[in-house]
Design goal:
heterodimer; A: 309 residues; alpha+beta; Sulfite Oxidase, Chain A, domain 2; eight-stranded mixed sheet; five-stranded mixed sheet; 8 helices; disordered N terminus; B: 196 residues; mainly alpha; 77% helix; binds protoporphyrin IX containing FE
Chain lengths: 309, 196
């Protein structure tokens, strides 16, 4: 599965560096208004990790989102995320690293090869998509900031900006902001783990987590923290938002696992959004590690995945 | 039951109530064929039917308080509202069985016994069944007025089940299901308070 798509190097187009370095959000000048799919083109090289399954439509990927910072309805992010200013964007990298700092996103992207990774995405709610991300391995970034030898986990944080993120205000607190997520360092260094900057060859629409989001295709979608402003290396397992909210329902690992039901629904099957069947789209079996077992199952050798869900 | 000083008492027949009640169903039928039900059409329908069921059930519960507290006499339309509510519960259940689960009976059975929110929703449906079946004049006569009244008290736990089911199925604590639950609790609480 992994090698079936291995491209030979001659086929690999060289990323036109200045193209993505100079990329501008075309609409940034218009008061930060960014509409779905209105991103700037982003060159990307193909990846052997991509699936050959048919990608979900751009419309579905950008109109059916869980991004509670912009509201709890799946149509809220597409409606409300346009107001978010994503440029300039700073990412604080701190904790157990050799080169901590407050980095400008443009500087972090310098020298990174942007790849297209077509990944399956399985939501904990029982639906799935196939998404052509653009991005670069998290490992490339981590290596650059030089994790210290004692570092064992990576913690992530989403932006808090209630003036632009309508779901963060309001009387009822939906979640404890900021949204936080985390990975074990070996999970973070796995080549599948991606920091996404784009979608369908264009810069990331705001509702999908612009300008920088995590994609961990063998875990439930909520592990893919969006609009990241902070990455910290630590020696302790970091707190994660849904685990804080409902510890008996969402664990730290949250690997896709058809054998371990969510207490409120089965995880054995999933509905693929936009599947040919439309209204009568059949559920399909959910695969262990979302079909990425070959690449990641060894990370969990000897662990009881019912306990570490 | 007779209240002397009703301030508002519409006299129009009941068929417009049935018609109005069918409008959401017609709207979604139209959407299925010509419109856009979004990325996950089955879920859109499932949620819409569930929500309309709850709205009409709440409307049905509001009739008596409206009459006693505000002198608005809508008793004549209550049966229509109740039957429309039941229609949406049935549609909701149908969408679940047919479109959500694809008639995968083992999975459905597992859902009903293992998932408390489905168990409670199902309890709501089962409680409403005898009410729907006895909603015709002949049935009312056959059961007898007193028994019929007693039987129809089942609507209280049924609506409560529906509202609790909604709160239980969402992640986190969004406002909407809590608002529905608060309205149901208020309408039931009013009845307890009137008795006390
Ligand atoms: C008194 C009866 C019932 C009422 C009032 C009711 C009401 C609702 C409401 C309001 C919703 C949420 C809609 C939304 O999110 O906008 C819902 C969702 C749902 N209901 Fe019901 N329901 C009832 C019975 C049932 C039954 C009998 C079943 C199945 C056996 C069922 C299965 C579901 C499912 C699967 C969902 C969607 C869960 C998800 O988001 O995936 N309900 N219902």
């Amino acid at each position: 599965m992994l090698l079936r798509h291995a491209p030979d190097l001659s086929e690999r187009e060289v990323t036109p560096r200045d193209l993505y370095l100079n990329r501008r959000h075309l609409l940034a000048g218009f008061g930060g208004m960014m509409l779905a799919g209105a991103g700037a083109a982003q060159a990307a090289v193909k990846s052997p990790f991509s699936t050959d399954e048919t990608p979900t439509s751009l419309k579905d990927i950008t109109s059916y989102n869980n991004f509670y910072e912009f509201g709890t309805d799946k149509s809220d992010p597409a409606r409300n995320a346009g107001r978010l200013t994503v440029k300039p964007w700073k990412v604080k990298i701190d904790g157990m690293v050799g080169k901590p700092g407050e980095y400008d996103l443009d500087d972090l992207l310098k020298g990174m090869t942007i790849e297209e990774r077509i990944y399956r995405m399985r939501c904990v709610e029982g639906w799935s998509m196939v998404i052509p991300w653009n991005g670069f391995p998290l490992a490339s970034l981590l290596k650059r900031v030089e994790p210290q030898s004692g570092a064992k986990f990576v913690a992530f944080e989403t932006l808090v900006r209630p003036s632009e993120m309508s779901g963060q205000g309001g009387f009822f607190k939906i979640l404890d902001w900021p949204y936080v997520e985390g990975l074990r360092l070996d999970e973070a260094m796995n080549p599948l783990t991606l920091l996404a900057t784009g979608l369908y060859g264009e810069s990331l629409p705001n509702q999908n987590g612009a300008p920088l989001r995590l994609v961990v295709p063998w875990k439930y979608g909520f592990k893919g923290i969006k609009s990241i402003v902070r990455i910290s290396l630590t020696d302790k397992q970091p707190a994660t938002s849904w685990n804080i909210q409902a510890p008996q329902e969402y664990g730290f690992y949250s690997n896709v696992n058809p054998e371990v039901d969510h207490p409120r629904w089965s995880q054995a099957t999933e509905r693929r959004i936009g599947d040919g069947g439309g209204l009568f789209a059949k559920r399909r079996p959910t695969l262990p590690f979302n079909g990425y077992a070959d690449q990641v199952a060894s990370l969990y050798a000897g662990m009881d995945l019912r306990k570490f869900y | 039951m007779a209240i002397a000083n009703l301030r508002i008492q519409p006299r129009f027949p009941t068929w417009p109530v049935y018609l109005a009640g069918l409008l959401p169903a017609l709207f979604y039928t139209y959407q299925i064929f010509y419109g856009d039900l979004g990325a996950d059409p089955a879920k859109t329908l499932e949620h819409a039917m569930g929500e309309w069921a709850l709205r009409f059930l709440i409307l049905g519960l509001a009739i008596t308080p409206l009459r006693r507290e505000l002198g608005i006499g809508l008793l004549k339309y209550r049966r229509a509202i109740g039957l429309v509510a039941f229609l949406y519960v049935v549609l909701h259940l149908t969408v679940y069985l047919l479109l959500d689960q694809g008639l995968d009976w083992p999975a459905i059975w597992a859902d009903i016994v293992k998932r408390p929110y489905i168990t409670i929703g199902m309890a709501g449906f089962v409680l409403l069944l005898p009410l729907a079946v006895t909603s015709f004049n002949a049935a009312i006569r056959w059961v007898g007025g007193r028994n019929w009244n007693r039987l129809h008290k089942l609507v209280y736990p049924a609506v409560l089940a529906g509202a609790v089911h909604y709160v239980m199925l969402v992640k986190s604590w969004p406002v909407e299901p809590l608002v529905y639950l608060a309205i149901v609790v208020a309408l039931l609480g009013w009845r307890v308070w009137r008795r006390a």
